Amino acid sequence: MVNKVRLGIVGLGAQGSMYAKFIADGLVPNMEIGAICDVDPDKRAVAEAMYPGVGFHDDYLTLLESGDVDAVVTCVPHYLHPQMGIDALQRGIHALVEKPAGVYTKQVRELNAYAATKPDLTFAIMFNQRNNPLYRAIKDLVDGGEIGKIRHSSWLITTWWRPQGYYDQSSWRATWGGEGGGVLVNQAPHQLDLWQWICGVPRSVYAKVGYGFRRNIAVEDEVTAMVDYGDGVTGVFVTATHDLVGTDRFEILGDSGKIVVENSLTATITRLKKPERDISEGMGMDDVRRLFTGQLDMAEYYSSEVLQFESQWGSQHAGVLENFAANIIDGTPLIAPGSDGINGVRLANAIHLASWTGREVSMDFDEGEYLTELNARIREEGKFSERD
Amino acid sequence: MVNKVRLGIVGLGAQGSMYAKFIADGLVPNMEIGAICDVDPDKRAVAEAMYPGVGFHDDYLTLLESGDVDAVVTCVPHYLHPQMGIDALQRGIHALVEKPAGVYTKQVRELNAYAATKPDLTFAIMFNQRNNPLYRAIKDLVDGGEIGKIRHSSWLITTWWRPQGYYDQSSWRATWGGEGGGVLVNQAPHQLDLWQWICGVPRSVYAKVGYGFRRNIAVEDEVTAMVDYGDGVTGVFVTATHDLVGTDRFEILGDSGKIVVENSLTATITRLKKPERDISEGMGMDDVRRLFTGQLDMAEYYSSEVLQFESQWGSQHAGVLENFAANIIDGTPLIAPGSDGINGVRLANAIHLASWTGREVSMDFDEGEYLTELNARIREEGKFSERD
Predict the structure, then answer these.
(1) N or C: which end of chain A has fewer CB within 10 A?
(2) Do B165 and A226 touch (CB under 8 A)?
(3) What SS3 state is found at B102?
(4) H helices of chain A, where?
(5) Which residues from chain B sit within 8 angstroms of residue A258, using beta carbons?
(6) What is the pTM of this model?
(7) How deeply is A284 buried, as exposed, middle or buried, from its count of CB atoms within 10 A (0-12, 13-18, 19+)?
(8) How far apart (Å, rounded) are the C-alpha atoms in residues B256 and B188?
(9) Residue A220 near residue A179 (C-beta atoms within 8 A)
(10) Coil, helix or strand at residue A125
(11) In tens digits, what is the pLDDT along chain A, a chain of 388 residues?
């Protein structure tokens, strides 16, 4: 048992640098920086200036084998997350993978299968939004049955505005071979996870996806998807990177209530005084007449509460690091177990596949078909190697 | 030319009674009640008590031929609207059909074709929401190009809550043979019309529809539809009669701005200072860095305005009656030409057909296939005759 978890930070880009700073600033009391790795040789001087005495590696395998780290976080392009997670676990190193868990489910399934053979090691994923107090409250409300069985949900999440210059920053960004997708793979994984974490995993999806719709990119910058949970329960998911004004509105309708979340800051919770169907069936003809003549005050049938949260950027990420370390130290339950990462990847893949084939795609889709379709796009793009 | 249009009110139920009262109360200055018709003999005494001296008929054909009316409004079950419209026009009587224009496009097309042979007669439809100042303002903004080309739209309209007792009021309500559908045919035609009036007619639709989902009825009480306008432009439409809390939120995203309408009362109009794509392409790497570090104030790129409207129930209907009469009297352009009624019926039919077949359905669907599917449901229900 360790007092502080020594974290290896693989990739000193935007995310890795941020995590290093959180730890150095004491925002993650049960963690310290064990070592840093980056393939860019210029990062060595940066790391040494910022974190003197911390070992620097240009190969993550030497970092894993350095003896200086108990755990790693994989702040590297998405395609690399699964293999890096496996390599860490193989060496007895706890693994926190960045989101998304990978680009295609086949590789994520391999990671999950390997992790399952190492139950003594901690395997988690950086779904920092699960640590957002608002979404934790919603999750607890829904799991606690406060709005009853979910009958419909929708999330319009177009606050991910990105200008062309963002896409032009690096050669792998927004390519099939380098990044493996657009908004579904890079920005929206948070909501793809939260939606399924709170409302469950759907059975199938139909989707319309815009590839290079309003940006000069190969991958998707707009998505409209409809999911089916079975038993008549449906959902809608809309995301885009070209809506400068941006909407973030998440609705969950249950048998006994409704939750509307706006801008990830305000949640309006409405609780019915009895199940909706009982209210419906308990009304006589006279009530119907009163309803239609405006004499029935529907507010008698429910109560509403508005929960207001503040945006606290950074604390979510630091909290996931803290929770990851706590699980290693004393078995504190994980907020985001690594094996949950497959859900978001699977839904993103199914949305791609639905749009490519024009079919309603089961969540139990053929992983080989997805990879074949993805590789066809990588081949056509001609910049990167195909995947297997 | 007449000074006041003498209106024949066919059907003295909830709608017909309301229109009679509006006219009697002077809310429609250019109209008077010419005659009233109802198949229910009990309504004769009601009509004679309320509107003494106004002729009462139990057959609409005798009303049309009475010489007492210049025009009629068809406040009768939806299936009857097209034939009643044709019968009126054949007798030189101007026709205002209630919404929906009919249940299936074949019958509405016949009505439109007949009306086209009578250009001197006024043919309109009671889309009273087109007379809502809010939607008129939005229509003008969009037509005037203020938000540019539309790239996405969505309408969540679940404020149509109806208890079971509403459906149990009469034997034809919420049946395939008597009413021809549920929320798509009865409640949502207003939004199906406004959406297409403002955002255009889509090319195809995919849908999940709940038939008797949360009510004991044969027809739909919940709809989730995704439409495709071509060129990557998509839209979403969600409606239901079982959401007691009810959402009414309409979003339109354009190249140069965005409109968000909430509760049909508040419209937030955001105008970009230049087209979104120009803003995107005009940003250099330095702007991208500032964007990601929160130093770029995106509000510099747009201005927003909130338009607040008041709900004035009744004035919309009276306004459509007034406009219909004005068109008859002096050719004032119609707010809702009768031939526009087919759009809502076509989209409702396409949504049904998509849900029944599991296919993405073109707006140019086979009308015969729709009628065959509808008749199969009427036959199975066993309460009413099939249609042709």
Answers:
(1) N
(2) no
(3) coil
(4) 14-24, 42-50, 60-64, 81-90, 105-116, 133-143, 164-167, 189-199, 276-282, 285-292, 315-330, 341-357, 367-381
(5) 243, 245
(6) 0.96
(7) exposed
(8) 29
(9) no
(10) strand
(11) 458 999 999 999 989 999 999 999 999 999 999 999 999 999 999 999 999 999 999 999 999 999 999 999 999 999 999 999 999 999 999 999 999 999 999 999 999 999 999 999 999 999 999 999 999 999 999 999 999 999 999 999 999 999 999 999 889 999 999 999 999 999 999 999 999 999 999 999 999 999 999 999 999 999 999 999 999 999 999 999 999 999 999 999 999 999 999 999 999 999 999 999 999 999 988 888 888 888 888 889 999 999 999 876 668 999 999 999 999 999 999 999 999 999 999 999 999 999 999 999 999 999 999 999 999 999 999 999 999 9
* Angle A245-A249-A254 from CA coordinates, rounded to 5°: 170
Residue B368: both structure tokens together: 């015969």
Strand partners, B272: B302
For residue A266, what are the CA distances in angstroms to A220, A261, B121, B319, B374?
29, 6, 53, 39, 44
Check: complex ipTM more than 0.85? yes
Phi then psi dihedrals of residue B373, to 5 deg: -65, -40
Closest Cα of chain B to A87: distance in Å?
A: 32
Token digits for B12?
A: 């003295």
- Cβ pair B206:A210 closer than 8 A: no
In whole angstroms, what is the distance from residue B95 CA to residue B73 CA? 6
Cβ within 8 Å of residue B42, ≥6 positions away: none
